[in-house]
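TASK: fixed-backbone design
INPUT:
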């Protein structure tokens, strides 16, 4: 049995107002403690354990609106690679910014 899956460019249904398509994510199966599941129509419902965004012109959006939506909905780890600055920003649900 697979306990974790990684995805690229898939839709995540977090709540009624947020259905982002992160650049990459990792989710753990609910049977072993994960918080998300695959819906009948193939979308991820609930918060994946890790989301990664590659940000160029979208850095401000990724570091503000998306960050708040992800943490508010229970994403445990969030990484933003700012390609113009060649910098990674890492956030987690407990510390907010790691």
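OUTPUT:
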């Amino acid at each position: 049995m697979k306990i974790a899956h990684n995805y690229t460019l898939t839709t995540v249904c977090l709540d009624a107002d947020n259905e982002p398509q992160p650049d990459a994510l990792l989710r753990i199966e609910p049977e072993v403690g994960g918080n998300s599941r695959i819906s009948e129509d193939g979308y991820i419902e609930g918060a994946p354990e890790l989301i990664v965004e590659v940000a160029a012109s979208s850095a401000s959006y990724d570091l503000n609106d998306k960050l708040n939506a992800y943490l508010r909905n229970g994403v445990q780890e969030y990484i933003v690679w700012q390609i113009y600055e060649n910098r990674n920003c890492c956030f987690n649900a407990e510390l907010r910014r790691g």
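COMMENT: The first strand starts at residue 4 and ends at 7.
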